[in-house]
Amino acid sequence: MIIDIHGHYTTSPRQHEAWRTQQIEAHAAGKAPPPRPAISDDEIRETITGGQLKLQRERGTDLTIFSPRAAGMGHHLGDASTSEAWAAACNELIHRVCALFPKNFIGVGMLPQSARVSPKNCLAEIDRCVNEYGFVGINLNPDPSGGHWQDPPLGDHYWYPVYEKMVEYDIPAMVHVSAACNPAFHTTGSHYLSGDTTGFNQLMTSSVLKDFPSIKFIIPHGGGAVPYHWGRYRGLAQDAKLGLLSEIMLKNVFFDTCVYHFPGQELLAKVIPVDNILFASEMIGAVRGVDPETGHHYDDTKRYIDQLPLSTGDKAKIFEGNARRVYGRLSAQIAKQAAA
Ligand SMILES: [Zn+2]
Questions:
Q1: Based on the number of CB atoms within 10 Å of its own CB, is 26 exposed (0-12), middle (13-18) or buried (19 or more)?
Q2: Catalytic residue list
Q3: 3-state helix, strand, coil in the chain (%, to 5)
Q4: 298 CA to middle of ligand 1, Å?
Q5: Ligand 1 centre from 66 Cα, in Å?
């Protein structure tokens, strides 16, 4: 089985995104948002059949761990109440996709975060995602301000209520920012990759992994700059007397393969142990074009893994085994949805 652990519902029905615009406009005008629009099962099917499902089939993958559109989370917009309603709407839609295509999609939830609002606000939505929707993970935004970094770092006790829930439910968090509202950043070019890198560094210099020995984080987009600069982080950890980087981080921190060229995948596989690499493409996402050097889509990342000089067993870990281990609820949910 080939499990893509990083996909977002970037093709969601138009009225869903239109309602978000209306919601934020109503909030700015001090009014109540309009009622949520009706979305039929057929409309959802159409967006998936011609999109993510088609690419799964073309590229030979089986299952996508699927979450709401990341740039669309927009935690810097509105306030805690708009975030709560928007996260609920987005997660419900993911649940409907998973119910319509139970063998192809398993859900991960976005959180109703807002800048400078306690993450305790997210706990009820995490409960709903796990208990009602069967979701197997969450996306945790380390910078709900959208590029201004106004919240405490991930090592701060501020975030511990979310970590307690993650451990309680055995669900990992993907450290994933949303759109940047700071013009210094390009959302998917620099904000995402610096969010990944910053998240890793914040965890490294904190006691989170000691305080929660079984917690699991995924650093997406190939780990941002981290694998490329592994020597720097090893040296920083050593100078700060934190211990050996691999020993302090790699029981809890994992990297996905959303790196859009073969040399990048080679480096990832050379630097990071195979047990810490999870297959992912983030399709249909940030980079949708065809690479003229290969003639294939940049985000067709399975091709790069196929080319790596690894054993069949190691590739099976990257494609399936590691995902089942890191997402503690995944195997049971696969079985449950397959029987649906
Ligand atoms: Zn993503």
A1: middle
A2: 282
A3: 50, 10, 40
A4: 15
A5: 10
Quote the ligand 1 centre to 339 CA distance (angstroms).
28
Ligand 1 mean position, distance from CA 101 (Å):
20
How remote is the CA of residue 282 from the centroid of ligand 1, in Å? 6
Contacts 24+ apart (CB under 8 A), 303-307: 303/262, 304/257, 304/259, 304/261, 304/262, 304/264, 304/265, 305/257, 305/265, 305/279, 307/262, 307/265
- Give the pLDDT confidence of 55-97 residue by residue, as tens digits: 999 999 999 999 999 999 999 999 999 999 999 999 999 999 9
Angle between helix axes 80-100 and 41-49 (nearest 10 degrees) is 80
Q: What is the pLDDT of residues 297-331, one digit of tens each?
A: 999 999 999 999 999 999 999 999 999 999 999 99
CA of 138 to the centre of ligand 1 (A): 12
Amino acid code (one letter) for 297: H
**β-bridge partners, 106:** 65
On whether the pTM is more than 0.85, the answer is yes
Distance of CA 324 to the CA centre of its chain: 16
Single-letter code of the amino acid located at 158: Y
Please work out, in degrees rounded to the nearest 5, the angle formed at the alpha carbon of residue 208 by the alpha carbons of 193 and 234. 60
Burial class (CB in 10 A: 0-12, 13-18, 19+), 96: middle
Residue type (1 letter), 189: G
3-state DSSP assignment of residue 56: helix
Distance 139 CA to ligand 1 centre (A): 9
Q: CA-CA distance, 310 to 68, in Å (whole number)? A: 33
Q: At what angle do helices 192-204 and 230-239 cross, to 10 degrees?
A: 30
The whole-chain average pLDDT of the chain stands at 97
* Measured distance CA(88)–CA(11) in Å, rounded: 18
Residue 40: CB atoms within 10 A of its CB come to 9
